[in-house]
Design brief:
Blueprint lengths: L1 H27 L14 H12 L8 H28 L7 H30 L10 H12 L8 H30 L1
Helix pairs in contact: 1-3, 3-4, 4-5, 4-6
Length: 188
């Protein structure tokens, strides 16, 4: 499950990185000084502007951290969900039903958030990079952030990130289990 999750995360991240770059830049634009703002009108104007001014490859800036983050999120989420669900069932207090799946998904979302937030922070900083120099790598950004603001700063915004990730984990994992049960009922 971890390998399958990681592979799907890698493919999805590679395909989705241009949209992520645009999103990060549009959101981060307000934090820039007026002379450095990009002032994109919309997503299409941002895509065109980036390609014209910085080259099409800029749309894949931050691909490595995006892939790393997505691989970890997907792999950890799928892997821990299965293990947690069966660990709950093994206690004897739970059976394989929607409640157990819901609880395992909440816990899985927590673990995925815990492991991926530092990577998401680095990815966002790389994608938001302004300047003539190439942005530093993911590990270097995480080290700099940790040295500058303390180790726990790598998890700044944990609650907001978890609040976003948890419903996604719940919907995804419950849907996977329900579709799997439907498939078994129909085809076996």
């Amino acid at each position: 499950m971890i390998s399958i999750g990681m592979f799907s995360g890698v493919v999805g991240a590679f395909v989705g990185t241009p949209a992520d770059v645009v999103l990060v830049r549009m959101v981060g634009d307000i934090k820039l000084s007026p002379e450095k703002r990009r002032n994109y009108k919309n997503v299409i104007s941002a895509l065109v502007d980036i390609c014209q001014k910085e080259g099409i490859t800029t749309l894949w800036r931050g691909t490595a951290p995006s892939i790393g983050r997505a691989a970890i999120v997907s792999g950890v989420q799928l892997g821990t969900y299965s293990r947690l669900k069966y660990a709950l069932i093994d206690t004897g207090y739970f059976v394989d039903n929607s409640w157990t799946q819901f609880l395992a998904a909440i816990l899985s979302g927590f673990v995925a958030t815990l492991t991926s937030l530092p990577l998401d922070l680095a990815k966002t900083k790389i994608q938001n990079w302004v300047g003539p120099m190439k942005p530093p790598g993911m590990i270097k950004i995480m080290k700099q952030t940790s040295n500058r603001n303390g180790f726990l700063s790598l998890w700044r915004g944990f609650l907001a990130y978890y609040t976003k990730a948890c419903p996604t984990a719940i919907i995804t994992m419950l849907l996977v289990d329900q579709l799997q049960a439907l498939y078994i009922r129909i085809f076996t």
